[in-house]
Amino acid sequence: TKEYVFRACFIDPFQGQVGAKFALDNLGAASAFVLFDQGNDYVRGLAENFEASFTAGGGTIVGKEAYVEGDTDFSAILAKVAEANPDVVYLPDYYPKVNLVTKQAKEKGITAPFVGGDGWDSADLDVAAADGGYFTNHYSSEDTRPIVVDWLKAYAAKYNGAVPDALATLAYDAANLMFSAIDKAGTIDTAVVKDALEAIELEGVSGKITFDEFHNPIKAAVILQVKDGKVSYVATVAP
């Protein structure tokens, strides 16, 4: 733990666990195929934690295939996916890779839903290719809490009607965590502000936030679905 460092976002193991729990409990999946970029720590971390949680929950991993960042043709890997016929495919990569893989999967007739992480969150996600997929994220713009509604209005006014993505929202929550800690501390003395952050309880856009002993946030994740050309809220999963 770094004494003066606090995270605004939940850590990757939690996302993998949430994705596995959702696949098992909400999608009724008994089998999963895992695809991951072997050179990307973020992607590999989510994949490993998904696999551990999915198997611990009684599911079976029927296949696992690695690729590298520069790959663009996934036909060989997807042929293995089609043959294994899993209930879900876990693809915790960023949206450019998701766009390629899901488009090629549809061309191969693979109908199993893809599940991923917050790397999917982008206005540039190919919603037609990813249609039917799900991903874990930090907040939903469909949340009706006043703090979310106000944030969406302020962001849209500043950025020509745009909807803030997860990274913008986490930056906003991070700033508000700091401002709130300074207010509670009554000073900008870093040691006192640090103590205030350790004890903070803040209602943020991404949910109610407290910190564990490692300065990682204890907070919920949301599940979003890509369907009919849009991304919609499905569920909230708390730790």
Textual characterization of the structure:
Helix content is 40%, strand content 21%. It starts with 11 loop residues before the first helix and ends with a strand. The protein is globular. Strands 2-1-3-4-5-9-10 form a 7-stranded mixed beta sheet, sandwiched between helices. The chain is α/β, with parallel strands linked by helices and 239 residues long. It has 7 helices and 10 strands.
Quick gist of this model?
It contains 7 helices and 10 strands.
Jot down its keywords.
10 strands, alpha/beta, 239 residues, single chain, 40% helix
Shape: globular
The helix tally amounts to: 7
Helix amount? 25-40%
Number of strands: 10
**Order of strands across the main sheet:** 2-1-3-4-5-9-10
Element pattern in H and E: HEHEHEHEEHHHEEEEE
